[in-house]
Automatic annotation (TrEMBL):
It comes from Thermus caliditerrae. The lineage of its organism: Bacteria, Thermotogati, Deinococcota, Deinococci, Thermales. InterPro entries: Acyl_CoA_acyltransferase, FEMABX. PROSITE patterns: FEMABX. This is FemA-like protein. It comes from the Bacteria. Gene3D superfamilies: 3.40.630.30.
Amino acid sequence: MPELLEIQEPEAWNRLVAAFPITSALQSWGWGEVKRLSGWKPVRFAVYGE
């Protein structure tokens, strides 16, 4: 069963994003932190399993 996990480590998030064939710097941990400065609350989740 799929499991939804919140990713709380920047390195883990960036590795996960980089593993996709099509990605963007806009998906990086750092970009989320930049957006936080303008009022966003970045929340990073991943689904694992089948």
